Amino acid sequence: MTRLGFRRAALFAAAILSWLSAPARSALPDPVRFGIAIELGDRGLAQGWLEEGLEPDFMADRIGTGLMIAAWEGNIPMMRMFVEADADIEKTNRYGENALMHAAWKGRVGAVRWLLDRGAKIDREGSQWSALHYAVFAGHQEVTRLLIERGANVSARSPNGSTVLMMAAREGHEALAKLLLDSGADAAATNEAGEDAVAWAMRQRNFGIARLVSSAERFALSSREPPEGQPPLRSIPAPARMDELLRAMRVAEALGRPVDALRDAYLAAFDEMMKDTRWLAGEEPPIPEGMEISAVRGTPGKESARVVYRSGKRTSATKMAPKSPPARAASPGSGR
User: Fold this and answer.
1) Is residue 114 classed exposed, middle or buried when 0-12, 13-18 and 19+ CB atoms within 10 A define those classes?
2) Backbone dihedral angles phi then psi of residue 71, each to the nearest 5 degrees
3) Cα–Cα distance measured from residue 70 to residue 68, given in angstroms and rounded to the nearest whole number
4) CA 96 to CA 113: how far, in whole Å?
5) Is residue 322 part of a domain?
6) Does position 19 have pLDDT exceeding 60, yes or no?
7) Residue 57 in contact with residue 88, Cβ under 8 Å?
8) Could you say which of 47, 212, 243, 275 is the most buried, measured as most Cβ atoms within 10 Å of its Cβ?
9) Cα dihedral 28, 34, 36, 40 sign
10) How many domains does the chain have?
11) What is the average pLDDT value for the chain, to the nearest integer?
12) What is the average pLDDT across 164-185?
């Protein structure tokens, strides 16, 4: 950021603080003003509102309650203040998300631990998105490990029956897929569309995960029919700077101030993010044509396999190390 940019940011921050505190410290806020104050971490202002009678589960214009926003930001002192004011730790927003899910989504391991220590339910009843779904989808290994250690259901189902393992398969989080499998996740589970984790991994061209969650025979069969069409869309975590620019635009709009410069800065940050994402520039994972399996008769443990990949008109081969039968079921159809 240039010196002029820092100067503008400082002036803008001063304007935000002036707007939040006017006309009186204790005047109850509207949802926008409330949300911005909690996002900025103004505990004094929030405490004043609570003392003046603001409902502890008051909803901001986005994210949710003060506790949810604080969890999103990883602001434990703010979380503590709302809980001590009798905020409902299980309260959900209009999307059915609670504070634990927000903390998990943002990778706020301290906030996740704090909520669990105070009785936040780690699992949800029926088929609903869970904190573990969110942590795995976003690729947060530390949060995922913590949730599993605390007893999270590794086979939890979303409203359409999608499992946590499917989130790892879709997003290409191979280490998390291994962790889920080692923790007892059901690789054979299917959603309402009849798809399992193998189908999700193959569609997203995450072939390492597809092989991990299937038998050699299933993978070989699936790899003979590679996904058609354009490369799949992939989720990309937005840099923190983009979140800050979006927040600044919200405040500017609330103040009735121009947002053109902020919007330009946001678009520039977005373009920079796209340049750093190689797959958007046309670099695709190789597509497997099949698997070759070999073995030595009478010599168990000497099996080996290699996946044959297709890359344009050329074909390359990758040798895989011998693989012993895993402790989990070898096939998605084994009824695990």
Assistant:
1) buried
2) -65, -40
3) 5
4) 21
5) no
6) no
7) yes
8) 212
9) positive
10) 3
11) 79
12) 96
What percentage of the chain reaches a pLDDT higher than 90? Answer: 54
| 59 shares a domain with 44 | yes
| Residues 43, 133 within the same domain | yes
Cβ partners under 8 Å of residue 50, min gap 6: 56, 81, 82, 85
Q: What is the rounded distance in angstroms from the CA atom of residue 61 to the CA atom of residue 84?
A: 23
Residue reference for tokens 């895989």: 320
| 220-271 pLDDT tens trace | 877 777 565 555 666 666 777 887 888 788 778 777 788 888 888 888 888 8
What distance in Å separates the CA atoms of residue 21 and residue 187, rounded to the nearest whole number?
Answer: 53
Whether residue 268 sits in one domain with residue 159: no
| Domain membership of residue 247 as a residue range | 235-274
Beta bridge partners of residue 318, listed in sequence order: 307
Task: Give yes or no for residue 154 having a pLDDT over 80.
Answer: yes
pLDDT in tens, 261-275: 888 888 888 888 777
Is 87:65 a contact under the CB 8 Å cutoff? yes
pLDDT of residue 254: 73
Please name which of 155, 156, 162 lies closest in space to residue 191, comparing C-alpha atoms: 162
> Cβ atoms within 10 A of the Cβ of 278, count?
9
Tell me 62's DSSP state.
Answer: S
The dihedral over CA atoms of 220, 168, 330, 285, expressed in degrees to the nearest 10, equals 20
Tally the C-alpha atoms within 13 A of residue 122's C-alpha that lie toward its C-beta: 19
